[in-house]
Amino acid sequence: MLLSTSDPAAAAAGLLQEVNWRLQALSAHEPGAALDEVASGLALMLEGGDWPLLEIVAGLGQLDESAQPHIRQALKGFLQSAALKTGRGDVLHASSARFFGAMAHTCAQVLQRDRYSTKEHGDLMAEVATRLMRASAGRLKWDHLAYGPYDATLWAQLGATFIEATEAGRLTTPVRLRAGRETETSTYREYVRAVALQCSGLDQLPVELIDVADRLIHYLLPAMHLGASPVEGARFFVSPAQGGQPRRLVRALGEDEAAWYFSPLMAERLMGELEVMLRKGVVPGALEGGPGAKERILACIRHLRRAWYDTPVSRRHRRHVMGGRIAAVRGFVALRQTLRGGAEEQSLIWALRDASVSGLGVLAPLANAGLPQIGELVGLRTDDNGDWRLGMVRRIQRDDISQAFVGVETFATSPKMVRADDGRAPVDVFLCDPLHRGGVLRVVSPFNALRAGAALFVAEQGAVQKLKPLGSVWRGSEFEVRTYLVL
Question: How do residues 219-258 score in pLDDT, each as one tens digit?
């Protein structure tokens, strides 16, 4: 793309036209390439240093809005890649991150230029600041979709933009980012969205629910409050002037700490009303997401309630820093083959970082295996001759693209694989507890492999034992744990 004219207005029009031509030439299945074209257009726009500010802001808006359909397409492709465990998701994440970074950088440069302008551009700069906030919140969401690594400069830029907008009196100035739409937003609203995302424990959600949680946060934004004084329900705080990210409020802050307090208290009423609608089969258009949308939204409501309102669970067992290698097997099928006494080659080698009675923290290399999934069943063993422990992935965070920290909640030691029958079809299951008459026994099976409420017969060492269901059940991503009484 070339800027070949000395007329700034003509140069701006030519640049936008060329970007549009390039976007139209791309296949609808190439959202990553489209976002890279828009990012390149933003970079070239900055090179036109003599462009009038009005032309830059108009061009910025057109490029930003032209990217939105491709962001949605990239998100769809990313989620498909995560489900199919292909590498395309990393490519789409990289292109999206480049676009969001270019948009935020361009907006920051425009705001910088306005500081030295002799003219007043209050409403225009409110739009630019809001676009910066939206792009940064988009980058934050996408980084959570990949479970990191996270942009270390994001909150400093968000905080600086927030403070400047506050001092300029345009923090809550209504802005329409999309032409022809009545929907309004503001610098304040987009900042609150970013704060809410950061306070929502997204590293504990399966990737397919992170986008649902973001759309749910959009839906709940009018009921969320961020203010410079503590209010009822304020469980989190953020210091924009210091560029820090939001943190949970665990003590009263000093008067010298320039904090803003985030309270999602009033969102509880909206979530309650939404639950009633969902149970009647009504899904709001803003949250519609195809088959299973109701269940996914309800799951996100439960998660946000835990993240925002529940008192944080104190650690029951001390965590001990440890080192060494640990063997890991992912998934019910691979673990079944391993417990049969074969397929040891399926085990991965992870690095142990810490351990407690109820969990392990490990580093998982990603070069030869994909990223673990929240809710995934894993078997772990620290000694080649030791017993396997069953656990479920609870938390994931990547500090770089080569490895991920994985928090695993362990729930069984020395599991046994046996054949079980609930009257429908025999199935392999794992017994988490000793098989003693009168005892309570947890049974791990593939998802929906066992009938709810049906007695279970298990064969061990030539004897058949009958189990009575007790009704308790909890589920992971592809497995479930049911509780029985041994008769």
Answer: 999 999 999 998 888 999 999 999 999 999 988 787 777 8
Whether 377 and 444 have beta carbons less than 8 Å apart is answered as yes
Beta strands in 382-415 (DSSP E): 389-400, 403-413
Per the DSSP assignment, residues forming a β-bridge with 348 are 328
Identity (one letter) of the amino acid at 50?
A: D
- Whether omega before 149 lies within 30 degrees of 0, making that bond cis, reads yes
Residue 261 structure tokens: 């307090």
One-character DSSP codes across 70-117: HHHHHHHHHHHHHHHT-THHHHHHHHHHHHHHHHHHHHHHHHHHHHT-
- d(C-alpha 217, C-alpha 323), whole Å: 39
- Beta carbons of 130 and 190 less than 8 angstroms apart: yes
Return the structure tokens found at 101: 């970074």
**In 146-265, which ranges are continuous DSSP H helix?**
154-167, 187-198, 207-220
Block residue for tokens 């593939």:
446
SS3 160: helix
Query: Among candidates 291, 296, 298, 309, which has minimal Cα distance to 276?
Result: 298
Model confidence pLDDT, tens digit, residues 435-449: 989 999 999 999 999
- Bridge partners, residue 443, by sequence: 431, 482
Contact status, residue 98 vs residue 35, Cβ threshold 8 Å? yes
